[in-house]
Amino acid sequence: MGLIPRTAMIHARIHHGRVEVQDPIPDEWEGHVVKILPMTPDDPVPGLEEWLAELHAMGPMEFDPGERELMAATLGELDRISKAAMQNIAGIQT
Q1: Are 4 and 29 in contact (CB under 8 A)?
Q2: How do residues 6-54 score in pLDDT, each as one tens digit?
Q3: Which one of 1, 26, 64, 92 is CB 3.0 to 4.6 Å from 87, fit for a cystine?
Q4: What are the residues facing 21 on neighbouring strands?
Q5: How far apart are CA 85 and CA 59, in angstroms?
Q6: What count of other Cβ atoms lies within 10 Å of the Cβ of residue 4?
Q7: Contacts of 71 (CB under 8 A, 6+ apart)
Q8: Cβ–Cβ under 8 Å, residues 8 and 26
Q9: Are 22 and 13 in contact (CB under 8 A)?
């Protein structure tokens, strides 16, 4: 059993306490103990550049008439509801 090259890496995510592998596991890793580390902001995200290029190619976001106001009103209502819920949890009467 040889050493795994230090640059070899696969992506996985932790879900409900289990590791869900996102990439194929290389055959040469069979039988090796692996080290799992969380990603940092400096780690490359596969496909991100392509995704961002597609997003920018779509152009600026446009709202239908009244849509911006509806979103603002909806977000304001959600803010009011969440504040009331937190005050209720804390036992504060309004």
Answers
A1: yes
A2: 557 788 889 999 999 988 888 888 898 888 888 888 887 777 888 888 8
A3: 92
A4: 12
A5: 38
A6: 14
A7: 63
A8: yes
A9: yes
> Which tokens is 41 given?
């902001």
pTM of the model: 0.38
To 10 degrees, the CA torsion angle through 67, 70, 74, 80?
140
> Which residue matches tokens 């289990």?
18
Q: Classify the phi-psi angles of 16: left when phi > 0, otherwise alpha if psi is within -120 to 50, otherwise beta.
A: left
Please name the residues in contact with 30: beta carbons below 8 A apart, sequence gap of 6 or more.
none
User: Residue 29: how many CB atoms within 10 A of its CB?
Assistant: 13
